[in-house]
Specification:
About 35% of the residues lie in helices and about 20% in strands. With about 350 residues, the protein is an alpha/beta fold. The protein folds into two domains: about 5-130, Response regulator (Rossmann fold); about 150-335, 3-Layer(aba) Sandwich (Rossmann fold), CATH 3.40.50.
């Protein structure tokens, strides 16, 4: 049974969260502590599978303690449970980029209700549960000649922000091909996500615009309110459109329409990547990429927070590489710098 550590300075919150864990029958409460230093002391001798972390704590904030907690946790998934997740999209994005698996808005003291408990346990089920599909054999293309490409498309969901940062850290500025990104996020988070990605990528990172134009070296991100599509312009360049047409998976934005439109635009010169995420978004788009002759790489299970999206593509036999984010970044560097 997965063991859970609660780190929150509020005694009320610790008690409420602890009750949900203990009464679930699915998780075991390992400990509930009031600050990060006590959490690190506990993790020095104990192993847990999940950490519930508040961001606003005295002496050391959750965001400042997160890197040390991730290291001490030795693979434990960190779920941010904090009121700051509602008020501070910027700090939440920073936590996800540092390696937090997911976020959940904590109710004010005295407002914990059964619906919140159900949501909390559902999140923990996803983070602690096995992948919905079996592990595919790792296949790395990093050591082989990387395929030539004119554009990069990346789709991700839960756990994808940290994976994307790890990937982009390996991609040098000499790679001038445009990068298109669809990450499942609330609309209010989109500007902060674009800013965070720009820091990771060390290149211009913009929210895509309707009737925009794709420029070399830019990273374009689907806004939280629309799918990002691409189409060829008469002068040989590429334009962008935004669409709110329903996607089969129900996601908005969705990876599938982005992959499909980029496959139609770039054909065999498209490199598509699927990172950590729950569900199957990206699977049908990956079929379109393969049908057009493009290349598909997916994140491996061992480094994914949730191996749903990449696992679905791998299970379907559509991925030419099953790799860590850093290995995918290295493959991009090898094939894109020219």
């Amino acid at each position: 049974m997965p063991r859970v550590l609660i780190v929150d300075d509020s005694a009320v919150a610790r008690a409420a969260l602890g009750r949900y864990i203990e009464h679930s029958g699915r998780f075991r409460l390992a400990a509930a502590v009031a600050d990060a230093s006590r959490a690190l002391s506990f993790l020095a001798t104990e192993r847990v599978d999940l950490i519930l972390l508040d961001l606003e704590m005295p002496r050391q904030s959750g965001i400042d303690a997160l890197p040390a907690l991730l290291a001490a946790g030795a693979g434990a998934r960190v779920l941010i449970v904090s009121s700051a997740a509602a008020e501070g999209a910027e700090v939440t994005m920073r936590a996800l980029a540092l390696g937090a698996a997911d976020t959940l808005v904590k109710p004010v003291a005295g407002a914990f209700a059964s619906r919140f408990g159900e949501t909390l346990l559902a999140r923990l089920d996803v983070l602690a549960g096995p992948a919905a599909v079996p592990e595919a054999p790792r296949r790395s293309v990093a050591a082989a000649p990387a395929p030539a490409f004119d554009a990069i498309a990346i789709g991700a969901s839960t756990g994808g922000i940290h994976a994307l940062a790890s990937l982009l850290a390996e991609v040098p500025l000499a790679v001038a091909q445009p990068i298109f990104v669809t990450q499942h996020l609330p609309p209010s988070f989109s500007p902060y996500f674009a800013a965070q990605v720009g820091v990771s990528a060390k290149r211009p990172s913009l929210l895509a615009q309707d009737h925009g134009r794709v420029r070399a070296g830019e990273l374009l991100i689907a806004p939280g309110t629309a799918h990002l599509l691409a189409y060829p312009l008469h002068d040989g360049t590429v334009g962008t459109r935004l669409s709110q047409a329903p996607a089969p998976t129900g996601n908005l934005p969705s990876v599938d329409p982005m992959f499909a439109s980029l496959a139609a635009t770039y054909g065999p010169r498209l490199l598509a990547i699927v990172l950590s995420g729950m569900g199957r978004d990206g699977l049908e788009g990956a079929r379109a990429v393969r049908d057009a002759g493009g290349t598909i790489l997916v994140q491996d299970r061992s480094t994914s927070v949730v191996w749903g999206m990449p696992g679905a593509v791998a299970k379907a036999g559509l991925a030419q590489g099953v790799m860590s984010p850093a290995e995918i970044g290295a493959a991009i560097a090898a094939g894109g710098a020219r």
